[in-house]
Amino acid sequence: MTVPDPVVVVRRRLLGGGLSAVLLTTCTASHAVADDGLWDALQQGGLVILLRHAMTTPGVGDPPGFKLGDCRTQRNLTDQGRAQAARLGEALRAHRVPVERVLSSPWCRCIETARLAFNGTPETSPALANLFGRPESREQLAELRKLLADFRARGNLVLVSHGSTIVAVTGVAPEPAEMVIVTPEGGGRFSVRGRLSTHQA
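Now predict its structure.
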């Protein structure tokens, strides 16, 4: 067996680390440029923001026998989630993003996310309901696709929903309080423009 020269090993490690640092810096810079482009596009209006509710208590779905009209029976936002929602609203206002309308899933965690981010009680829409643990509804998804495809306004439409619902209609699985930006194209068509997060490390 050939024993490698220790100096060569150290050089390789240094070169590898340097290359990793360069790649990380390049990826971070590219991501920042992409984010800037999305913020600029949102400032122009006419887009749809699909927003997953902020962080909740641990678990998936809701407790057995939960009721939509009773938040105590549902999985709700944590303090960290409430801070996420508030920070999201602050970021949208800081970037001067015009909001035309806010719709929310009837679930309490979505309504609270919308209320904290946009300083008001949102309209609710069954098109944004949670699909987790339920048979996929063609009617619900058709209604949601119509919202995404046919929106026309000077501001932006915000739809606060669930990860299961957003991934079903876009193929993108967002993190809590992450935005999936959609461009309406009319005629039942839309395209995913990108995703934005305002999380702090």
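The two ends are 46 Å apart (CA to CA).
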